[in-house]
Design a protein that fits this description.
heterodimer; A: mainly alpha; two-stranded antiparallel ribbon; 7 helices; B: globular
Chain lengths: ~140, ~210
């Protein structure tokens, strides 16, 4: 897709008066990462995954808590190995939070919109990523 | 107070009508305030019941604790420190759960092609869905009834607020529960049962 086509199908704006969701989600995520790291929740000896408990198969978010624990100590490679998608989403949300923070003084927040066609592509890509990540977690024995 | 009771009654007894009439724009202030007040009240009720249960059956729980990890987990999560943390940090716990929950459901709705309106619509449904927390005041069966009715309210709410079918809405509510949220048990436990108990557990397992 050329740059011109992309600009026609993707709309990045910073409307005023919009809720800074990036800051809220990134802040909540940061608190979560800190709690996991400080309380060592990634070292629980009990499995808390219902799906894994019932079937022995990890769920699509298995390893996310351990990935957060790795992120807390700055082990990026370990975090990606634990759950690549959860770690990627964490970085995406962090970037969104930084963008919203930068726009905050002007009372604006980041907004990204897609054309219906690109929206479908993004949706199917998201689903494909979740399935690929799940396959990886099963293969890696999370 | 009268408006709070009126809203809670309307959501619990007539969710279809409530969400059909609910505006999906206009700011998140009112639904946010409602969710924090009702959610915190439910959390307090649950914490008090847990404390009473512990007073009544403390020795049984302690006995379970010596038998295995699950028993130890239950024992520590229902401890006195956990109770105090729930009481003190309750509003923060409810706020974090509200935003993260709404964010998660909106992403699932987007993936299923069911997010026909903005995040605010999803947020409003999740916020008013906290009306189910009022059912936590029911002794013994409160938690079970609240969880089931919360899911029902969300299914109806998403369908009405986003103008989608009940099937797609049901999928949006159940998919995270079945395939994802079950694994964030450590964090869910943290939110639902209190930091203190988890902290004690963390010290135990290290």
């Amino acid at each position: 897709m050329s740059e011109a086509e992309l600009s026609r199908t993707t709309r990045v704006t910073a409307p005023s008066g919009r809720l800074p969701l990036g800051v809220i989600f990134a802040g909540s995520g940061a608190v979560g990462v800190a709690l996991v790291g400080l309380l060592h929740l990634d070292h629980l000896t009990v499995s808390v995954c219902f799906l894994k408990f019932a079937t022995g198969c990890p769920c699509p978010t298995c390893g996310a808590t351990r990935a957060m624990g790795r992120l807390f100590v700055g082990d990026l490679r370990g975090a990606f190995a634990m759950n690549p998608l959860a770690t990627g989403v964490a970085f995406l949300v962090a970037a969104w939070g930084v963008a919203d923070l930068a726009l905050w003084p002007w009372g604006r927040a980041l907004s990204v919109g897609f054309s219906p066609a690109l929206g479908r592509v993004v949706r199917f890509t998201g689903l494909a990523l979740i399935l690929a990540n799940w396959a990886y977690l099963i293969a890696a024995g999370r | 107070m009268a408006a709070l009771v009126e809203t809670t009654t309307a959501v619990l007894l007539g969710p279809t009508d409530f969400f059909r009439r609910m505006p999906v724009t206009g700011g998140i202030g009112a639904p946010f305030g409602y969710a924090v007040v009702v959610g915190y009240a439910g959390l307090l009720a649950q914490a008090i019941y847990q404390a009473l249960f512990r007073i009544g059956f403390g020795s049984v729980i302690a006995g379970l604790g010596r038998r295995g990890e699950v028993g130890q987990l239950l024992s520590l999560l229902q401890g006195g420190v956990g109770f105090m943390v729930q009481v003190i940090l309750g509003p923060i716990i409810v706020t974090m759960g509200l935003f993260l929950g709404a964010g998660l459901y909106h992403v699932v709705l987007l993936l299923l092609g069911g997010a026909r309106r903005d995040f605010e619509a999803t947020f409003r449904v999740v916020a008013y869905g906290h009306a189910a927390s009022a059912l936590l005041v029911l002794p013994f069966c409160g938690s079970l009834v609240a969880i089931v009715w919360w899911a029902v309210v969300l299914v109806i709410g998403f369908a009405e607020a986003h103008g989608i079918g009940r099937g797609k809405s049901l999928a949006a509510v159940l998919l995270p529960i079945v395939f994802a949220c079950c694994c964030c048990g450590a964090l869910a436990g943290l939110v639902g049962l209190g930091l203190g108990g988890i902290a004690s557990l963390a010290r135990l397992v290290r």
